[in-house]
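Deliverable D2.4 — example input (structure tokens):
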């Protein structure tokens, strides 16, 4: 198979499988989440290291019992496309760009999202 065909297959199947895995993992594990209810009711930037990135969407949805419009900064590379599709299954919009590609555009998109009263998810260790 060609690389292009393999990537198309991955983009077709992997996001749903990752989403399903995250949902099953979330439902089947015990969690203790400490947070201040008054603070969580306000608008936020949600920040996570890449290592905890997979748990952000379900955690965000749990903490924000009535989620606001939310966007996440995701790289423009192939792995970023997989992540963007997983986030879409959680109802999270992706802003595409990174420090090495599309940085100024994603910065403008992020500022616009915040001005439009959206919340923003990002990882400070990249993209």
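Example output (designed residues):
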């Amino acid at each position: 198979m060609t690389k292009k065909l393999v990537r198309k297959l991955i983009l077709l199947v992997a996001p749903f499988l990752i989403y399903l895995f995250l949902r099953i993992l979330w439902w089947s594990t015990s969690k203790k989440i400490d947070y201040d209810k008054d603070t969580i009711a306000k608008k936020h930037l949600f920040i996570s290291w890449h290592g905890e990135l997979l748990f952000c969407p379900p955690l965000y949805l749990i903490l924000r019992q009535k989620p606001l419009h939310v966007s996440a900064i995701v790289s423009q590379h192939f792995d970023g496309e997989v992540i963007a599709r997983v986030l879409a299954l959680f109802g999270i919009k992706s802003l595409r760009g990174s420090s090495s590609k599309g940085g100024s555009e994603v910065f403008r998109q992020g500022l616009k999202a915040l001005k439009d009263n959206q919340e923003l998810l990002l990882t400070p260790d990249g993209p």
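The CA atoms of residues 5 and 113 lie 34 Å apart.
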